[in-house]
Design a protein that fits this description.
By secondary structure, the chain is mainly alpha-helical. The chain has one domain. The longest helix is centred in the first third of the chain and has 37 residues. It is globular, with a radius of gyration of 17 Å. The two termini are about 20 Å apart. The site of one fe (ii) ion has 5 residues, from helix 2 and helix 4.
């Protein structure tokens, strides 16, 4: 299996990128001084963009495949509920001024929820996919997953830096989520 068709390998790699961005934001050099604060905001916007793409692509492509081999609807629902909690938290963060105390409190909650979710998927979900999803399905699901991830246009780092802060970008996460779900359903990539 090539790296680009290794579903669990792709997911683990994306989890590592998310963990790296989270630890950068919680690191000692993040947010000290105006330039560092602006850089940290661009990193946060990249993080939030990657989170929503990853979780929605999992929801639309990976979890339906998981249900085919797992049949434990309660288990899948409980992990998908974590996706909904994370998406809700990102929408809340879109409405807050970056760097405010309320923003930082919600960002800390997001970090805790996301890390627990990544751990749970790596320990429980990925082991099921590795042991029970056939090789052909593995490749086919990986292919659709990569297409859904790219279903909405990517913002450059400069475009992220130019985004206004606070509630003027209230719909950023919601717009991305709606775009991805619409494209995935209308093109048959979902499910
Ligand atoms: Fe997930
Ligand atoms: Fe994941």
């Amino acid at each position: 299996m090539t790296p680009s068709s290794d579903l669990v390998g792709i997911l683990i790699e994306e989890h590592a990128i998310l963990r790296g961005l989270l630890s950068f934001l919680d690191g000692p050099s993040s947010g000290v001084g105006a330039t560092a604060q602006k850089d940290a905001r661009v990193v946060y916007l990249e993080l939030s963009d990657r989170i929503i793409r990853h979780e929605i692509a999992e929801e639309l492509v990976v979890y339906p495949a998981l249900l085919e081999i797992c049949r434990d609807v309660g288990f899948a629902d409980s992990v998908l509920h974590e996706h909904a909690t994370i998406e809700d938290k990102l929408v809340v963060l879109d409405q807050l001024e970056y760097g405010s105390s309320e923003f930082e409190r919600n960002r800390a909650e997001l970090t805790g929820e996301l890390l627990a979710h990544l751990d749970r998927e790596e320990i429980q979900v990925f082991s099921i996919l590795l042991s029970r999803l056939g090789r052909e399905r593995h490749v086919e699901v990986a292919h659709r997953y990569r297409q859904v991830i790219r279903a909405a246009p990517l913002l450059s780092a400069q475009s992220r830096a130019d985004l206004p802060t606070g509630p003027t970008v209230v719909a950023r996460t919601s717009a991305l989520a709606v775009w991805m779900r619409d494209v995935a359903h209308s093109t048959g990539l979902a499910g």
